[in-house]
Design brief:
The chain has eight helices and eleven strands. 35% of the residues lie in helices and 25% in strands. Helix 1 runs antiparallel to helix 3, helix 1 packs across helix 4 and helix 6 packs across helix 7.
Length: 231
């Protein structure tokens, strides 16, 4: 096993069946977007057709990005496919700014939700997982065990678990900005959906600091298992 941290969790009970440096805090790259997505879905429960106007900060996010322009308007529900299928960094910031008022306030919502779920070793600073630190020098990071707990919440106990699974299982999705000036097509980068029988959800991630990361879930023979790999 080459991953520096790894966890295999029983999704039904939450029990960790296997751990390798399971509680060691590491950068987790775009697996971060799992939390961004579930918070957005829970927000949409009250605001189903909410739209977002793109800010300068969102439009200026580095690749991988959708390529949104300042002033463009999108439905939040469309940007969640951009977020989870293609892992677009600009979509994550646009969603965070709208729901939280700012990236910093949204990150606080992410940390609050993580604590509610039972996470002990998380520090969300961004909604997209880029390698940054907060004003106090705390780096964006989490443990493998906590990322597995977050995935378990998303697919099992969140009131929007069904919608989360629907988004993350979508193979491709096409949408427009509100003025219908530009069309965008997103394809799912979670190859395990088609490579492994029973795969039901997952999110990839990579940064130079985090290395390759993955959190996913699989159902087979009456069992639901979650795996997290960091670095």
């Amino acid at each position: 096993l080459y991953a520096r941290s790894a966890v295999l969790m029983d999704a039904d009970s939450g029990r960790v069946l296997f751990g390798k440096d399971a509680d060691v805090v590491r950068p987790m790259a775009s697996t971060t977007k799992i939390m961004t997505c579930i918070l957005a879905l829970e927000y949409l429960r009250e605001h189903p057709d909410q739209t977002i106007e793109v800010s300068d900060q969102a439009a200026s996010q580095p690749k991988v990005h959708l390529g949104m322009q300042k002033g463009e308007v999108f439905y939040i529900k469309d940007l969640l496919y951009s977020l989870m299928l293609e892992s677009h960094n600009d979509s994550a910031v646009a969603v965070a700014e709208h729901i939280g008022g700012s990236v910093e306030e949204f990150a606080e919502k992410m940390n609050r939700k993580a604590r509610e779920i039972g996470c002990k070793n998380v520090c969300f600073v961004t909604p997209n997982g880029l390698d940054v630190a907060d004003a106090d020098g705390n780096e964006h990071s989490a443990s493998a065990a906590d990322m597995a707990r977050i995935m378990r919440y998303c697919i099992k106990t969140s009131p929007k678990a069904t919608e989360f699974l629907a988004v993350t299982q979508t193979r491709s999705y096409t949408f427009w900005d509100l003025e219908k000036k530009n069309m965008f097509n997103c394809c799912n980068h979670n190859a395990l959906l088609d490579q492994m029988e029973g795969a039901i959800s997952g999110k990839t991630g990579f940064t130079a600091k985090a290395g390759y990361c993955y959190t996913g879930a699989l159902e087979r023979d009456g069992k639901c298992l979650i795996v997290t790999l960091l670095a």
